[in-house]
Specification:
Radius of gyration: 27 Å
Helix content: 40-55%
Number of domains: 4
Structural class: alpha+beta
Distance between the termini: 62 Å
Largest sheet: 6 strands, mixed
CATH superfamily of the largest domain: Ribonuclease H-like superfamily/Ribonuclease H
Number of strands: 17
CATH architecture of the largest domain: 2-Layer Sandwich
Shape: globular
Amino acid sequence: MLDDIQLHLVESLDDVEQMMQWLGERREWLAVDVETTGLNVGCDWIRLCQFGDGAHGWALDWRDWRGVCAEVVRKYDRPMVTHNLLFDSKMLKADGVVIPQRLAHCSMIMSHLADPAGYFDLKGSASRWVDKRARAGQGLLKAAMAQGGWTWATIPVHVPAYWQYSAMDTCLSALLAERLWSETGGGPYREAYELELATIHCLREAELAGLLVDEEYRRAATEKLEVEIAWLQPQIPCENPGSDQQVVALLQAQGAVLFVRTEHGNLSVDKSVLAYLEPQFPVAGLIRAWRQKRRFVDNYLLKFAEVGSKRGLAVEGVLRASTQPVGAKTGRMSVKDPPLQTLPRGRVVRDAIVARPGHVFVGADFAGMEMRALASFAHEENMLAAYARGEDLHNFVARTLYGEAFTKLERTVCKNAGFAKVYGAGVEKFAVTAKIDVPTATAFLERYDAMFPGVKEFMEANVREVMARAGGQRNGTGYVVLTDGRRLPVPGEKAYVSTNYKIQGSCAVTTKQKIVELDAAGLGPYFRLAVHDELLYEVPHPLVRRAREVIERVMPDRINFPGVVLEVDTDVFDRWGYHYREDYPSFIPTEPAPWLTGVAT
DNA sequence: GTCGCTTGCCAC
DNA sequence: AAACGTGGCAAGCGAC
């Protein structure tokens, strides 16, 4: 299939004319792609722009032919497909070129819907669905770059390995779309496909806007942590408390008996081991603190710095992360550079992220989203009734199982049991997280199951269903169906994950629906970030009340999970950490912005 | 010096 | 009988 493809580098007006003639031919899919100097929209730029279909691929040097490329994207009036619509449309828009939303498609989303467990980078998808040799160019390009000492930023456009395989990428993307359309977006997964595309357009605007870093706070917090680290360091008698081997030696020298093993049989000195040792060996606590502070600086605060200062990611004080709309095999989004979904809770790190002057953040999160989804899927009347009464589920469980005078610790056990169900944990793991012994855990789960028989039945039904779909084979593959009709594959030997996949995947669908609905309700320009069950908006302060009203009206969901309302909590704050003001003290005291007073409750 | 594996840890 | 899901990512460390 790839043999007959013709690749062209546009170098003259004659070439442009030929390409234009080719563009006038009729085809299902015109693929568009860009090559850039790197992946960060703030500081990287487009070097090459490519167009292609199943027969021809064209590469254009962006410096010379930007206007031509922009014209093509603007005027072409048939479907255009890119393999990573979010990234390509983001880079193009950053340079003023907009792919019309009604014509924009994404072959990566098609690949994901066709097989959510597969690899869906372009070469991987194309070699699976189009032609096994799709990866061939990759190695040649890499070799050329190595030989010339080039990077993505420096490899000359005229190097054949560069422009040819870049042009070829559009052909692969077009062929992928041709191959997968009817079985994904143009077929059974139309709803899911359209949801993903609509979400991508929201995410692009969010990523282009980015999040502002308070440089003054970032620096002050970094310095304060460095001081604390410098104070801890001499109290820990080893060269590097970050080295597990050294920590093992140190603790053993002090007489500690280590017995917890890592996956590969080494002695473990992780957080929980150190916490366990701390009462007898105070140095363990110091090591734990050292490691956390070191991580806060290295993994987060330094990353929030400007590009150029070691490993910074910000440009003009703004962080623009990259989202994979279907990063997880459950369809959840993932975020990197920086990983904004995993910033430590509390104020130390998150206080570095601030709303722009005159703006505030409006945060909205679904309350107990996954447990509510579980209650609905399982038709678990006792749970649904508790939610209908407006009762806290874990309180309800604790009261039923431990009596009115239940302790906070007992409530935590109940909460852990809920998570254990959602994640598919066994008794042992549940016992560890709940910090109870296995017999107690077993007895507890028995009473929990008696209280919520629907949950147990639902989980067993999921496993049965997956196994049946896997042909009864442990080495076969079944699937679960999500609320928007898409299917997630589940390996037979891990059938127990089916409940988790169904819940996690359907919750991800719901979150995306709400992003899109809020966009339609006018909040699109203010959307900044999604963290699984919470959304972050950055709103000019005169609009805060209205924005909050819109969110509280649009976001609660009563469609996806019948029998239960997905309720939403909102909060208003001017720096991200302030959202945690009730649980954590300010690391470095900061004044709330004047426009926050009267708005934050 | 780079690469890949291992360990550990952050979030939901 | 067994089995805590989904990610991103840094440092250490040994191998090349």
